[in-house]
Amino acid sequence: MPDVVAVGDEAVRRAVLARLCSDLGLDRGAIDVTIENGSVSLWGAVESEVLRDAARVAAETISGAGGVRNRLRIVAN
Which residues, 6+ apart, have CB-to-CB distance to 34 below 8 Å? Predict the structure, then answer.
């Protein structure tokens, strides 16, 4: 059975999540990404302001992302 290829907002969502998890090592259980008409919103918790900013930058580099609302909050370990 072939994989279903995502298009539109779902494709952008998957690409952002993949980038955040693989490049930044963020825990998939601690973050979420929502997309509405290409506008990306990042949700969840990260450990530092550096990771919060890096997540925003990573999301902005995804083709099809029309802007990023960074709603990630910082939590101490």
Answer: 13, 40, 41, 43
